[in-house]
Amino acid sequence: MSAAAGSASDRPLAIAITTGEPGGVGPELTAAALAAARERWPSAHFTVLGDRELLTARAGGAWPAAIEIEHHALAVPAQAGKLNAANGRYVLGLLDAAIDGAVSGRFDAIVTAPLQKSTINDAGVPFTGHTEYLAERTNTPRVVMMLAGTGERPLRVALATTHLPLKDVSSALSIDGLVETLTIVDHALRAHFGLAAPRILVTGLNPHAGENGYLGREEIDVITPALERARARGIDAPGPYPADTLFQPRYLKDADCVLAMFHDQGLPVLKYATFGEGINVTLGLPIIRTSVDHGTALDLAGTGRADPGSMIAAIDAAVTMARHKRSA
Predict the structure, then answer these.
(1) Contact assessment for residue 112 and residue 95, using Cβ atoms and an 8 Å cutoff
(2) CATH of 143-284, one of 3.40.50.1000, 3.40.630.10, 3.40.718.10, 3.40.50.720
(3) How far is 86 from 77, CA to CA, in rounded Å?
(4) Is 263 a known ligand-binding residue?
(5) 192 annotated binding-site participant
(6) Which residues bind a divalent metal cation (predicted)?
């Protein structure tokens, strides 16, 4: 190993954190979570991207010691609980800086606090969400959204489609697309989560997984052929299972992930089980990105009552995934 390679592998893990919507809970959750992260990951280096004055104020006037702030100035002063489209480009600028740093190798992973999509759109920038924007900025043709709980055997749910109207889901599913999605999930579980032989349970699209074609043919024409092709590649992906009965301990006890066909098929179950302690991970990117499993919580911003549990879990996951990637 060269000296340069050795120094890169020996340096502390560098984690960037974007603080998201300035009117939301992101700034204060970041401060609270980092107070815990310093003790959990003393050898990691954390860089927080945001307005220094805002972050210090939301941290109660005292920013956590030894945590670097990369200052990005607000366009206009932010008020807790209030949205202002004038700061939409500020929020996007934080994300751009973190992505650029991760792509260049400056950061080993990025953690994103929640943002408000409407604020960015109101600022004149078309924006669907973190997942789609990350894919576009890194020139990644396909990414996969996965939400996960915590613990030794966490519930993980990945999505075959993300932010689409329900009427568009069927036409968005294809054999090639599902095989590619399963390949991304399988690779990520191996490379970033340390699972040697991941098992991915796959839902059907229709009620009762189509009832042998009586309730829809997507299972017969698209999902089953995709699973057969994926299994031929060595991916352990049984299914398709009816989504209304799959999420039971007797099925999930031997599963590492569930692939659901659309956003509100799998995520309500996961969020019911893990909300406030779960994480969102974007799979398939050339960089590592984790996030909280909730929104901006404008009603809690500035009150000191927001729970940092999900942000702590997102930071933990980012560090753990970066360690697996570095050791691979």
Answers:
(1) yes
(2) 3.40.718.10
(3) 10
(4) yes
(5) no
(6) 163, 208, 263
- H and E: helices and strands count for the chain: 14, 10
Q: What is the pLDDT of residues 146-204, one digit of tens each?
A: 999 877 778 999 999 988 899 999 999 999 999 999 999 999 999 999 999 999 999 99
Tell me: is residue 280 an annotated ligand-binding position: yes
User: How high is the pLDDT of residue 256?
Assistant: 96
71 is in an annotated binding site: no
Q: Is 45 annotated as a binding residue?
A: no
**Cis amide bond preceding 165, omega within 30:** no
Residue 243: which region, alpha, beta or left (left: phi > 0; alpha: psi -120 to 50)?
A: alpha
Please say if the pLDDT value at position 228 is more than 80. yes
For residue 241, list its beta bridge partners. 203
What is the C-alpha end-to-end distance of the chain, expressed in Å? 15
Cα–Cα distance measured from residue 321 to residue 328, given in angstroms and rounded to the nearest whole number: 11
Question: Quick check: do 1-140+286-328 and 143-284 share a fold?
Answer: yes
289 is known to lie in a ligand binding site? yes
- Tens of pLDDT, residue by residue over 298-324, are 999 999 999 999 999 999 999 999 999
> How far apart, in whole angstroms, are the C-alpha atoms of residue 156 and residue 256?
7
Q: Where in the chain are the domains?
A: 1-140+286-328, 143-284
Confidence of residue 5 (pLDDT cuts 50, 70, 90): very low
- This prediction's pTM: 0.90
Domain 1-140+286-328 fold is: Isopropylmalate Dehydrogenase (3.40.718)
Q: In what order do the strands lie in the sheet with 45-50?
A: 68-71, 45-50, 14-18, 109-112, 289-292, 279-283, 144-148, 156-159, 257-260, 200-202
Distance between CA atoms of residues 289 and 285, nearest Å: 8
Q: Is 84 annotated as a binding residue?
A: no
